[in-house]
Amino acid sequence: MQREVERIPSPGPRPSTPTAGALGTPSQPSGAGRLTSEELVSQELHARLQDEVGDLLFTVVNLARYLAVDPERALRHTNRKFRRRFGQVERGLRERGKALGEATLEEMERHWQESKGSE
């Protein structure tokens, strides 16, 4: 599985076409209901990855409980923090006359780091 995972490209921005989903796995079969061998392998790998990520999340939740941290509360806090920082990134770009879709990763990262520093 290690080599299979290494071959998966970084998902990056989600594609706008309906034929590719997260991790590049097909969301619609090609042809009339028949899957190609590549699509079958991709679906199999995606199912295995989903299972592994589920195990990881389960373990993290148990770790949080062991540490007497409410996992749901911690996640809500992190979501609020992310939304606040992302809003600052968007505002910073707007102030410079850029839309989010026009910004480079370097520009977004700079604004992200500034938002973290202002907390």
Task: Describe the protein in words.
The structure is a single chain. With 119 residues, the chain is mainly alpha-helical. The chain contains four helices and no strands. Helix 3 packs across helix 4 (105-117). The longest helix is centred in the middle third of the chain and has 30 residues, at 37-66. It is flat. The N and C termini lie far apart (40 Å).
Secondary structure tally: strands = 0
Average the pLDDT over all residues and give the rounded result: 79
As an assembly, this protein is single chain
Tally the helices: what do you get? Answer: 4
Helical residue percent band: 55-70%
Measured distance between first and last alpha carbons: 40 Å
Shape estimate: flat
| Topology as a string of helices (H) and strands (E) | HHHH
Q: What low-confidence regions span 5 or more consecutive residues with pLDDT below 50?
A: 12-30
SSE topology:
Blueprint: H1 2-6, H2 37-66, H3 71-95, H4 105-117
Structural key phrases:
119 residues, single chain, flat
Brief synopsis:
Helices cover 61% and strands 0% of the residues. It has 119 residues and is mainly alpha-helical.
